[in-house]
Amino acid sequence: MKVFGGVVILVLGYLLLWPVPIAPISWQAPSSSGFSGEFIENNRLAGLSFIELGEDKGPEDFAINAAGTIATATHSGAVLLKKKGEATFTPWINTGGRPLGIEFDTNGNLLIADAHRGLLIADPEGELTVLVNQVENTNVVYADDVDIADNGNIYFTDATTKFSAKEYGGTLQASLLEILEHRGNGRLIEYDPVRRTSNVLMDGLVFANGVAISHDQNSVLVNETGKYRVLRYWLVGPKQGQVEVVIDNLPGFPDNISQATSGAYFLGLASPRSAPVDALSDKPFIRKIVQRLPQFMRPQGQAYGHLVKISESGEVLQSYQDPSGAFPFVTGAIQTDEGVYVSSLTARSVGVLQLNQRR
Fold first, then answer.
1. CA distance 51 to 215
2. Residue 7 has pLDDT above 70, yes or no
3. What does the alpha-carbon distance between residue 153 and residue 147 come to, in Å, rounded to a whole number?
4. CA-based, 20 to 30 A from 6: which of 23, 93, 122, 339?
5. For 106-118, how does the pLDDT look when each residue is reduced to its tens digit (9 = 90+)?
6. Rounded to whole angstroms, how far apart are CA atoms 311 and 318?
7. DSSP assignment string, 225-274
8. What DSSP element (H or E) covers 213?
């Protein structure tokens, strides 16, 4: 009995006192309506065709240049290219990190938000240069997504200034730490390539994720993954510097956002919301205990395919789902002449939704 009692004391001491990387705060998660109303469960994403990536996986984002070449960023650090008319993606360069968001500029250079290295640029020959790895005397810890305005200014997110993807076991693991802590270590950054200066436009974001310049160039949309919402930061006009909510209380964790046709946007929901995470939102002490549990006992993402199309005002225009999770952890999409290319955090292929399937 003494041995048993000693073991119990040790286990309790571990669960209550063992150091963890998160310092959670209390917040109140909005009540989830789940897959109902405009998000009613359907199978509109189940008809994807696939472009296999061979030994690679995790086509996180896409970019397309003036010649119709599509680029995607993968888990191995490789950026793959698929020229117009070709059937497959082939390796081009490797950043030596984890490239996430990508975007071509008007000169054919590829901007890369690399979770390990910061904001990079690759010229058409593939030569890599680091543009930004420090802003306002603080390191860029987890560059996540990037977009370019018509005037050449670059906007990118530093998802969390605390939980490095390189240090904490990968992009997914680091994102979970930021979301569980919920202090808001993420930020939106503007980079001026002419002056070569950068500044923070927004901070305090709970995992700042996808970025998209608005169609009229007057604002930038930012996904705040940990709060299930999309925000708008006004760049010009009478609301300059103000922040508005475009859509909130989403049924999943928003990842990337990109322009679609007719003034719309594609929004990837990487995983449905977690009932335990929501239930523990106002219980920071319990969240620390959860973090001490073995990883398999902690809240995990669910493999559920979900791509949403929203209007400029945040109206849900279409919800494409695949409850089977055959193409899991959808991060976003890009519209091309060949169809809608769908990205994923973990898949070993690129999904393609044919235009005649988009209803």
1. 29
2. no
3. 9
4. 23
5. 999 999 999 999 9
6. 10
7. GGGTEEEEEE-SSTTTT-EEEEE-S-SEEEEEEEE-STT-EEEEEEEEPP
8. strand 208-213
- Please tell me the predicted confidence (pLDDT) of residue 285: 95
Using the predicted structure, report yes or no on whether residue 12 has a pLDDT greater than 90: no
Q: What is the mean pLDDT of residues 268-289?
A: 96
Distances (CA, A) of 72 to 49, 80, 85, 129, 201: 17, 5, 16, 18, 27
Q: What are phi and psi of 53, to 5 degrees?
A: -110, 15
Helices (H) and strands (E) in the chain, counts: 4, 26
Using a 10 angstrom Cβ sphere, with 0-12 exposed, 13-18 middle and 19 or more buried, the burial of residue 31 is exposed
Query: What does the alpha-carbon distance between residue 210 and residue 54 come to, in Å, rounded to a whole number?
Result: 26
Phi and psi at 55, nearest 5°, equal -85, -5
**pTM, 2 dp:** 0.95
**Whole-angstrom Cα distance, residue 189 to residue 159?**
10
- Spatial distance between the Cα atoms of 92 and 110, rounded to a whole number of angstroms: 12
pLDDT tens figures, 153-186: 999 999 999 999 999 999 999 999 999 999 999 9
CA neighbours closer than 13 Å in the CB half-sphere of residue 250: 32
Q: What is the pLDDT of residue 300?
A: 86
Rg (the chain; Cα; Å):
20
Instruction: Provide the b/e sequence for 145-180 (b: ≥16 CB within 10 Å).
Output: bbbbeeeebbbbbbbbbbbbbeebeebbebbbbbbb
Over the chain, what is the mean pLDDT?
A: 94
Sheet of 99-104: strands edge to edge?
99-104, 110-114, 118-122, 128-132
How many CB atoms within 10 Å of residue 125? 7
- Return d(Cα 232, Cα 2) in angstroms, integer: 60
> Quick one: tokens of 18?
């063992």
- pLDDT by residue (tens digit) across 13-59? 646 656 789 999 999 999 999 999 999 999 999 989 999 999 999 99
**What whole-number distance in Å separates Cα of residue 218 and Cα of residue 234?**
6
Do the beta carbons of residue 172 and residue 301 sit within 8 Å? yes
